[in-house]
Amino acid sequence: MNVSFLLAALCVGAGAQTRSPEKGYVVRAEAGTVWLDLTAADGAAPGRSFEVYSEGAELKHPVTGASLGRVRDAAAEGTIREVQDKFSTGVLTGNGRAKAGQRARLTAPAAAAPPAASAPAQAGASAEPGRRAARTRGATLNYAAVGMAAGDFAGTGTPQIAVAAEDAVRLYAYPATDARVLAEAALGGTGSRILSLEAADLDGDGKAELFASLYDQGFRRFETRVLKLDGGRWAAAAELPFLVRVHQDPAGARVLASQQILDDRTFPLGTIYPVAYRNGRYIQDRPAIRHPRADWIYGFTTAGVSKDDPAVILLTSVHALRAQFAKSSWRSPDEDYGQTPVRVRWNDRLLEFNPPMPAAYGPAGFEALFAARNFAALGGLASPFGVFNRGEVARKRWNGLAFETEWSAELPGCVQGLAIVSTAPGRRELAAVVRGAAEKSSIWTFDF
Burial letters for 194-208: b for 16+ Cβ neighbours within 10 Å, e otherwise? Predict the structure, then answer.
């Protein structure tokens, strides 16, 4: 036999014993996120699909007796989100389940340009300057969303997203491209409804707490229920006698603020305090949060547009956007911001639970402010009734004189929540929960 041919055959035989470059194992699985021992050298890339499966009985050829491989029992499917040096993380799609030790294999190659490939078509979005198409549009959620919060509730190092209807909160794997609920808790009830959601890890255990603020019409009181994810289920952690809302300080740090609503017709809004966790309890900390004109926690944030003179960003009573400085101010011209169907009539005052205004910061400081605009049906005539049939998200930057729009995105419904989500080191996205006219919702994401 030719020696060269024999050596080549031996090399081929030895290579057949090594792992296929596109096959590996599930190392860990939790809350819809899986960790695989597949890396870029194996072909793993963000956006590439994978399959989780178990190997069954061996198949043998009936004549030659040669092994043809094993039966493959599919368990789950997913998409790679992040690739590290020695592993990759992915998000499961559909209703499948995965567990450590199962086999995994890469399937369809990653698209050449994942953001463009995953973004659904928006009529005219890419043709208009300044318009931004969505990166992803989530699955249809069969309820009207009233709030959203993003955070690492499972302590896995990857974000999840919580969405609230008036009577329940549900957790999804980010970016909620399927409607599989990871955890659910019923909070509302007769005469009680959820108003907003927030996420913060105040107890410092590496898992974000979920803060659900409610209004109990029967007892005429506002309260917040704190939930923790424990073993894949929401567990009650505390009940607080005040509303909570995250805003950002001038350096960009997220601060969970609190406010009690008083039965006072003259001035029902209590002092705003930060929330802290001490000795196993959530408390209203000191000093109070005091900014000019900022008396409602659902109507302000701050932005470090200048190191010497940071701005308080306000939603005015007529829904204009206002930047208040120490000795001057700026106001948006002929544009309404915020607005929401989530409202409570309290004595003689209408309390509106506006969408958040998250601010993005980088190494150089303040980068941009994100603001929602909701448009009332019937040419604006339905605004007093809280009926909004379309929305818009705008990324705005401070040019030294005013906030100007860098890009905006049209949405087919009312924007009920905004959040900046860190999906990987150095990678950020904007998530928005959209409530449509048919009382259904979905989560849309956008590249920065």
Answer: bbbbbbbeebeeebb
- Helix (H) or strand (E) holding 182, with range, is none
Give the 3-state secondary structure of residue 378.
helix
In this structure, of 152-166, 305-319, 345-359, 370-384, the range with the lowest mean pLDDT score is: 370-384
Q: Encode pLDDT of 157-212 as tens digits.
A: 999 999 999 999 999 999 998 899 999 999 977 789 999 999 999 999 999 999 99
Task: Name the pTM for this structure.
Answer: 0.75
Q: How far apart are CA 185 and CA 194, in angstroms?
A: 12
CA distance 379 to 356: 24
CA 228 to CA 271: how far, in whole Å? 27
The Cα 444–Cα 119 span in angstroms is 10
Side-chain-side CA neighbours of 100 within 13 Å: the count stands at 5
Q: How many CB atoms lie within 10 A of CB 160?
A: 27
Contact at 8 Å (CB) between 214 and 193?
Answer: yes
H helical segments located in 167-250: none
Cis bond leading into 175, ω under 30°?
yes
- Is residue 129 reached through a cis peptide bond, with omega within 30 degrees of 0 on the bond before it? no
* pLDDT tens string 20-78: 545 899 999 887 788 999 998 888 888 788 899 998 777 777 767 777 677 788 888 88
Sheet containing 365-376: which strands, arranged edge to edge? 359-362, 365-376, 388-398, 403-411
Residue corresponding to tokens 């002929």: 334
Euclidean distance between CA atoms 47 and 41, whole angstroms: 16
* CA 39 remoteness from chain centre: 26
SS3 49: strand
Looking only at the bridges linking them, the beta strands covering 343-346 and 243-248 are unpaired
